[in-house]
Design a protein that fits this description.
The protein is built from five helices and no strands. The chain is an all-alpha fold. The protein has a domain of about 80 residues: Tyrosine recombinase, N-terminal domain (DNA polymerase, domain 1), CATH 1.10.150.130. The longest helix has 17 residues.
Length: about 130
């Protein structure tokens, strides 16, 4: 690697693989896809592409198949791109005033029929006979 920043990026990928006991060279496409997902949490989308480019260059210079051409890596980047390009969904009717003034609800009371009052008693409960007055 000629540029020091590219060397630093490769060493970072190599350390990441070492911590997880994965091979950095030649890297499996799953390893590269997992690294991209891990980077996605804290890095910009452009940085993901730069890191993938560095990994691909190291593999090409080593005369090994580059993992960035695999479908798994491409689908991972596409999924991240799709998720990042979607606008964040917010509730349209939300305003700051909704927190201060909650919506008033009308309470509705249900009337119980006297005939239905006994229907709520479980069937195992014995009904005592009413004393005759």
């Amino acid at each position: 690697m000629n540029a020091p920043h590219r060397r630093k990026e490769w060493l970072e990928f190599k350390d990441w693989c070492g911590q997880r006991k994965l091979r950095a060279f030649p890297a499996h496409p799953w390893t590269v896809a997992a690294y991209i997902v891990w980077l996605d949490a804290n890095r910009r989308y452009r940085t993901l592409h730069k890191r993938l480019d560095v990994i691909a260059r190291v593999h090409i210079r080593g005369c090994v198949h580059s993992p960035d051409t695999e479908d798994l890596v491409k689908r991972t980047l596409l999924a991240i791109d799709t998720r990042r390009s979607e606008p964040k969904k917010t509730h349209k009717s939300f305003t700051g005033h909704d927190l201060l003034e909650p919506k008033k609800r009308k309470l509705q009371f249900k009337k119980l029929d006297e005939t239905r009052a006994f229907s709520n008693i479980p069937p195992l409960v014995s009904r005592r006979p009413q004393p005759e007055a």
